[in-house]
Amino acid sequence: MSEQCRRIFIDSRLRSPNSTSNADFSVDLPYEVVCPAGTELRIDGLLMSHSWPTVEAGNNDRLYLREVMGGTAYHRIITIPDGTYSIGTLAVELQAQFRTGTFITDGEWTVVFAHNRLAFKNTSTTASSVLYSRGEISSKVLVEINWTFTSGTVVSTYDWATIWAAANIVEAISGPVADATEMIGLMSTRLQMAPGVEGRCDHIDLARHKALYLCSSSLPSTSMDLRGRGDIIRQIMIGNSAPGEVVVDSLPSMVAFAHFPTFSVLKHISFQVRGYDGEIATLFGHQLSFVIELLRPMDR
Question: Which residue of 50, 138, 201, 288 is surrounded by the most CB atoms within 10 Å?
Answer without folding.
Answer: 288
